[in-house]
Amino acid sequence: MNMQSNAKPGAARERGAIWTQICDEARRAVQAEPLLGALIHAGLLHHPSLEAALAYRFSMKLASDEMSEQLLREIADAAYADDISLGDAARADLLAVYDRDPATHRLIQPILFFKGFQALEAYRIAHWLWRQGRRDMAYFV
């Protein structure tokens, strides 16, 4: 594998550069492990932004008979649209995991596989709900 493909994002940590790197990693992962293609396409490549991918992951992880995936997705989309700092915080969280966790070799790993990262992003959405006065929904999340 090309050493550059695993290069840390370095100075180019802006929104677009991070999402571009995530999509590049996702495409390479599908080539390397075709059996994960559906997961990677649904979780990353079908989305226009990190926020959209995180909203999808949030809704998939928390959906149940009591709360539909669609409703959870609408909540997450509203949170990311209303407060741009949520997406920026998610990027900072993602880069922190990438930089500090020796088990993390690609930015796609925390998004797709790491429960702690996913829980942190769910907490951020719950906190947004709390600040909106939607306390019961925040408790649900």
UniProtKB/TrEMBL annotation:
Single GO BP term: cysteine biosynthetic process from serine
Is the keyword Transferase in the record? Answer: yes
The record, for InterPro entries, names: Ser_AcTrfase_N, Ser_AcTrfase_N_sf, Trimer_LpxA-like_sf
Its cellular-component GO annotations read: cytoplasm
Which key words tag this protein in UniProt? Transferase
Q: Boundaries of each Serine acetyltransferase N-terminal domain copy?
A: 18-122
Q: Which GO terms describe its molecular function?
A: serine O-acetyltransferase activity
Query: This protein is called what?
Result: Serine acetyltransferase
